[in-house]
From TrEMBL:
PROSITE patterns: ALDEHYDE_DEHYDR_CYS, ALDEHYDE_DEHYDR_GLU. It comes from the Bacteria. One of its GO terms (biological process) is gamma-aminobutyric acid catabolic process. The keyword Nucleotide-binding does not apply. This is Succinate-semialdehyde dehydrogenase [NADP(+)] GabD. It comes from Paraurantiacibacter namhicola. Its EC number is 1.2.1.79.
């Protein structure tokens, strides 16, 4: 590994794949992993395909009966040990994330704590999967409804939160008694592999958790084709999610799909300005704006518009982009050239069509894009219609509450939304009428393992986190016991 961001625990720098308890090293063709800040190659991991994925699925199938038969408390204890090891190695996991993802150090350490929280939560939730006794329809019968693990599960995770998006799936799956095969993003596999290494140390039995890196199409195809895989959980783009959903239909898999967004951030006239600005900063610039729930459109009511733009502009103008390891960096580089190109295209399209730069702007060397605030944005600009996934905040003005709600809902997506108001009636109405799976009121930070995470419309299906998250990995079995009056 590189000496930049050197680990205290060198055992966490893992470049092999885990299948059935065995680590498989790269041989021949391999995937290169680079540092988004220095652009240097920092590791090579196996470029696996359908064959290796099939072996991982077989290993998970073999391990499933034994894991499902364990008591819920036993499974929970292993998950809690896994949580403890993650927290003990927090700084090393954060270093790996900064190296392969580029995010700022504060974002990386926060993600480790957030991600570990899913294991802690579902370690406790394992013992709360309760069944039901249903009043019998006739004497001599007992009607029961039990919850059982669905079986082998597959997980495909993105690069923007390489630990948290994995623990959010692994925690409930293993707590429920399922086994899993996971494919992390090609850009950020080392964090996931280190997580798997800690899982072994925590006592996760061989085959219960497997991880393969490589060709997305081949691995995803093997996962969706295999009848043994009874559940697929995917976080990523809507286009890919739709294809996976179609492929899963042939074998009637359960699916959880957390897809794209176009999150509005509404500031009403009666909002507290300081709260609105601080919430806007968090909702837009966390992880360099590369989050599916990042505020993509700032809708600001006319009465507070100028004041908000001025105050937010001062905050954005003071932000710095640079090396994630430097304390002075509020955000790091973007993940790849395509990501940088898209942000620059959206920014330029807005400027060409009448928007103006209020603060920040421009791009740096490599994959650096400086925090930017644009005003005078209109609904038909690219930056309003498409998910930018970068550190550019775009503000448009509206007049009435009705108009603000209409603009916010004017998208096919429905993942996250935000608004700021001090009026209880406005809060009640807007919270009810926003067509989104999640709504942040007077805050830009809404994610927690204790709450359901997911969207509506083209932003996906299912929920992750909370007790709803574990239900995604269970099915209900009805038992009708007759002849009990003899």
């Amino acid at each position: 590994m590189t000496t930049r961001g050197k680990l205290d625990n060198q055992d966490l720098w893992v470049t092999g794949n885990l299948i059935g308890g065995e680590w498989i090293s790269a041989s021949g063709d391999a995937l290169e992993v680079d540092d988004p800040f220095t652009l240097e190659v920092i590791a090579e991991v196996p470029n696996c395909g359908a064959e290796e994925t099939g072996r991982a699925i077989e290993a998970a199938s073999d391990a499933f009966p034994g894991w499902a038969d364990r008591t819920a408390s036993e499974r929970g204890e292993i998950l809690h040990d896994w949580y403890r090891l993650i927290m003990e190695n927090r700084d090393d996991l954060a270093r790996i994330m900064v190296l392969e993802n580029g995010k700022a150090w504060s974002d990386a350490t926060s993600e480790v704590e957030y991600g570990a929280g899913f294991l802690k939560f579902f370690a406790q939730e394992a013992t709360r999967m309760l069944g039901e006794i249903i009043p019998a329809n006739t004497p001599g019968r007992r009607l029961l409804a039990t919850r059982e693990p669905v079986g082998v599960c597959a997980a495909i995770t993105p690069w923007n939160f390489p630990l948290a998006m994995l623990t959010r799936k692994v925690g409930p799956a293993l707590a429920a008694g399922c086994t899993m095969v996971a494919k992390p993003a090609a850009a950020t596999p080392i964090t996931a592999l280190a997580f798997a290494k800690l899982g072994q140390k925590a006592g996760v039995p061989d085959g219960v958790f497997n991880i393969v890196t490589g060709d997305a199409k081949a691995i995803g195809g093997a996962m969706t084709e295999a009848f043994a895989v009874r559940k697929l959980s995917f976080t990523g783009s809507t286009g890919v999610g739709v294809k996976l959903y179609e492929q899963c239909a042939a074998t009637m898999k359960k699916t959880s799909l957390e897809l794209g967004g176009n999150a509005p951030f509404i500031v009403f006239d009666d909002a507290d300005l300081e709260t609105a600005v601080e919430s806007a900063k968090t909702a837009k610039f966390r992880n360099s704006g590369q989050t599916c729930i990042a505020a993509n459109r700032f809708l600001v009511q006319a009465g507070i518009h100028d004041e908000f733009v001025e105050a937010f502009g001062k905050v954005v103008g003071d932000m710095q982009a640079g090396d994630g390891f430097e304390d002075s960096s509020d955000i790091g580089p973007l993940i790849d050239k395509d990501g940088k190109d898209k942000v620059e295209e959206h920014r330029q399209n807005a400027l060409d069509n009448g928007a103006r730069v209020v603060a920040g702007g421009g791009s740096g060397d490599g994959r650096i894009v400086h925090p930017t605030l644009l005003a005078d944005v209109s609904p038909d600009m690219q930056i309003s219609c498409e998910e930018t996934f970068g550190p550019v905040a775009a503000v448009m003005k509206f007049d009435t509450v009705d108009e603000g709600i209409r603009l916010a809902n004017d998208t096919e997506f429905g993942l996250a939304s935000y608004f700021c108001s001090r009026n209880p009636a406005t809060i009640a109405r807007v919270g009810r009428e926003l067509e989104y799976g999640m709504v942040g009121v007077n805050t830009g930070l809404i994610s927690t393992p204790h709450a359901p995470f997911g969207g509506v419309k083209m932003s996906g299906l299912g929920r992750e986190g909370s007790h709803h998250g574990i239900e995604e990995y269970l099915h209900v079995k009805y038992l009708c016991e007759a002849g009990l009056d003899n």
